[in-house]
Write the structure tokens for this entry.
Amino acid sequence: MLLINTPKEALQAPLQAVCGIVERRQTLPILANVLLERHDDQLVLLATDIEMQIRTTAPGAAAGEPVAVTVGARKLQDILRALPDGCELSLLLEDKRLNVRSGKSRFSLQTLPAADFPRMAAADGQAVSLRVGQGAFRHLLAQVQYAMAQQDIRYYLNGLMLLVEGTELRAVATDGHRLAFARTHLETPLARAEVIVPRKTVIELSRLLADADHPLDIVLGAGQARFAFGDIELVTKLIDGKFPDYERVIPQGHPKVLRLGRQALQQALARVAILTNEKFRGVRLVLDEGSLRVLSTNADQEEAQEELETAYHGDPLDIGFNVTYLLDVLNNLTVSEVECRFADANSSALFTVPDDPDFSYVVMPMRI
Amino acid sequence: MSAIHLLPDALISQIAAGEVVERPASIVKELMENSLDAAASEVSVQLAEGGVRLVRVSDNGCGIDREDLALALARHATSKIASLDDLERVGSFGFRGEALAAIASVARVTLASRRAGAPHAWRVDDRGAAPEPAALGSGSVVEVADLYFNTPARRKFLRTEATEYAHCEESFRRIALARPQVLFQLQHNGRTLHRWAPGSHEQRLADALGGEFAAHARHIDAQAGNLRLSGLAALPAYSRAGRDLQYCFVNGRFVRDRLLSHAIREAYRDVLHGSRHPAYVLFLEIDPAMVDVNVHPAKTEVRFRDARAVHQFVFHAVERALAVPQHAGSAPRPETPSQVGAAPTTPARSAMSPRQTALGVEQPVATYLEFVATAISRDADTGSAAQDIDASPPAAADNDVSPAPPLGHALAQLHGIYILAQNQAGLVLVDMHAGHERILYERLKAMPDGAPATQRLLIPAVFSASARELATALEHGETLARLGFEVGQAGPAELAVRSVPALLARAAVAELVRALLADLRDFPAARVIEARRNELLATMACHGAVRAHRPLSVPEMNALLREMETCERADQCNHGRPTSVQLSVAELDRMFLRGR
Ligand SMILES: Nc1ncnc2c1ncn2[C@@H]1O[C@H](COP(=O)(O)OP(=O)(O)OP(=O)(O)O)[C@@H](O)[C@H]1O
Ligand SMILES: [Mg+2]
């Protein structure tokens, strides 16, 4: 039975889109598979890792009854990758095996029944739906996602908090040492919704979203969220937990304010970072009238120093940070200038973008 | 003059008191037990200044007749047993008739009581005057004030108010745990800290120990002959750094019995790391005639007539409860290089020889590098990879074809516990937790005492703390600061960690600080750092090190191996166990009967 006959590229792209989440290590063999379903004139492709599922379609399926099967995702991807570019290929379901044919190449793959494939049921209950541009949402994620925790026992930090309130969509991520906040604006006000999207989903979304103005439909429901864009639909479980109160963490009224060129600061930090103690990467920022010095020392007593000129008028300050946390924010911003605010050597520092209230980054100091 | 003479009565009592009344907590225990022996259904404990200034226990029990009031304070006066026969099957907490007398010899005691039906209550104190009328509903109130007012030497052994309070609370908790049908209330310096309403065993456990423990524990209910064991035993993952969550009751009496703790420890043997302690609350019920409770001044030890049978029974009951089928899903399946290699078809159909002939050294190394490269690109593919890990670059990146380093290049992680690595000689197996623990320990030892680099936390790690943990944290604030921790009280029963040593910035902070507090408890604050620095650092290393079942990427594993190679004494973990094992190709060949 013919499932599809198509140019290789028209199948390879959707296959790649869904198979990114298939885990290399499987406890359940069928989770290593991708579901292929002939439906009208489309071939539906669906993969899952139980926590999230991605569905997309390839055009040009053969006509006939709906039929579905699952097959090893990696192997199918590897075969497609190895076939010559621009070739035609067909997928045929014959006697419980999936046959891939192209030119003189023949592959016969074992299958598992589609009925055994775990699909995520649509969640019921209250949901908030919104539409934003793909590019805008991708930018929103990029501004904060690097601050997510990784494998923290406070499981609710291993993700990104999305909050809809009025006409605002906010994203917040923190690992307990620093926190990033970004916001974008919606056209119409919506009911309040607050969810925590798992880390892996966030990374996958960033990978799949286009950097363009095409629409993205988001549904935030109870325990589950849905992201639909282009031909792709991503459904993910949400992290059930209470995200820290980010508003309390963002400091108000830190008195020591200075503006710096983002790239100048980034490059100075990157150079000084070479001679930091490799275990905890501490740098000192020393602030005086008119200048900011960045200093480091490592375990072998080697030293580095950079000086940046700045129109700073205020009390001097000597404060330490993990340089990785500073580089993270500078690397992920695209603006030309950043504004830094400090209080004292024990208090957090706030990084913002001049004249843009929609981004904040808070980082705690380190005593070196 | 004769060398041997009889001791005055008061002195005899004081000597006995030394064994019974160790600290205010002992008074709390004795008085509460008396209330329960009097069949009270409500017991209220009021403390002032950690119980040193005042312990007052009131109950709604049967009360004491006017004629018996003075006797209650006399030595060897009890209403609970009358003969040796009674002693052999005693069901009450008390039976010696000496607790109140002992307490009265070291503190000021007042006793007021009213029998049901009596027109009013009567009061006596320890000065021997006749009872006077008093106002009281039915029941008894015993007040013990100014502990050790007459023995200043002993007063010196008392600790801070917070610590003494914590011990009192612990006594209170032990007694309340065994009697869920009784309402218990605890006040300190005028504030009500606990009020545990009568209810089920489950409810009382949750009230007294918090829901976290119950959520991580297995239910036990086993019976054999006249023995019954019930309660909760925590899963190994909820094990503790100290023995603070171990409660054993024999016929409702809290005991610290070697035989029982040994049986339980044995039941955990296969599933628990040597330095961890299981958490449990277990109630053993046994025919009173089969157990002797009269072996210890504070009655916290018992002797079983048939010790072997009890040991066997407890061991099996706990072991069975813990031996649940591991859900097969938890352990990741190890991946073998052949799975990743070019394209081996099923060997049966393959016409080629199943083993590639070696072409010299470069060949296998090159294959290996390819494997690493694939593994990394796949990691990147799935997006689950080490995104923000600044691990040293994998060998593939710098095209290093020189002989493999001593611990080799990581191949895979086995069951989330071991790293498999290939070196020149063959296969290396590394216990990743033990190896990492050693590295951290050496690094922590090199950290300057008093001014380690610390990372402040944006979101403080807040955890619920027992009164004992609170007291220890406050008493040892200085020690903790010198180790790099800033710990403060965040609520009536909560601690917040605001700074951690930069070396351990990613550790599970709450768990780590709890373990430190367990280490610090009962140590004089001033001396602890000098005497026990390394011990404390070992605890920190253990908690800072990667835990089993944490998936590591290949670059992360390689980084760990490289660090182990440069670390002193890296071949042994802090507990003296080896961190890595080498299997040579020759040994492997022998296993597979190759080359015969
Ligand atoms: N709260 C109370 N309610 C009723 N009777 C009490 C109460 N407290 C003490 N008594 C009476 O006072 C007596 C003496 O108490 P005490 O605690 O000194 O001895 P005990 O409980 O008999 O034995 P042990 O020394 O083993 O505790 C008891 O036997 C009991 O009759
Ligand atoms: Mg008694």
